[in-house]
Design a protein that fits this description.
This protein has helices at residues 2-5, 32-38, 40-45, 58-68, 136-144, and strands at residues 21-24, 47-48, 51-52, 74-82, 86-96, 110-121, 127-134. It has 158 residues and is of the alpha+beta class.
């Protein structure tokens, strides 16, 4: 929530700002400032056939997914596997695909990402590092599997 709603990582209460690192699927580690500048969608999804984080800004990436999931793209903790200092947990990120995703029509389907994360925390439970593991390709494929992209306004079919 802080990463999405507070642009200054110095205001984030849940992390150790000067130590914080985040990675996805064993990839590059990002700082809190990277997260604030680039946005979580860009850092989580990276560059793929169906999404190019290099052409999206924090604001445009937020808009892409807010449009695709107009009723929200919820995050849910489903199971805690181990406690501090290395908190390992399972989660899902899900929403109903009721808006367009780029040029792809909505399907009304519930689409989710499931994953596992490891949060290394201090004694007072502030996050020093976060590692996320999930298959972003499955998620992106579901957003683009509903058929052809929208065509010009003059065409009646897809």
């Amino acid at each position: 929530m802080e990463a999405s709603n507070k642009s200054n990582p110095q205001q984030w209460l849940s992390i150790v700002t000067d130590k914080f690192k985040m990675s996805t699927n064993g990839g590059q580690q990002f700082t809190a400032q990277d997260v604030a500048d680039e946005g979580t969608y860009n850092l989580f999804l990276g560059k793929a056939e169906q999404y190019d984080s290099e052409t999206e800004t924090f604001e445009s990436s937020f808009q892409v997914f807010h449009t695709a999931f107009p009723n929200g793209f919820l995050w849910e903790l489903t199971e805690v596997l181990s406690g501090p200092p290395n908190v390992t947990f399972k989660w899902r990120h899900w929403g109903t695909f009721n808006g367009s995703y780029k040029d792809y029509a909505p399907t009304g389907e519930t689409i989710e990402i499931v994953g596992v994360s490891i949060a290394r925390v201090t004694d007072d439970l502030k996050i020093e590092s976060l590692e996320h593991y999930f298959d972003n390709n499955v998620f992106l494929q579901k957003l683009t599997a509903g058929g052809c992209p929208f065509h010009s306004q003059n065409q009646n079919s897809h």
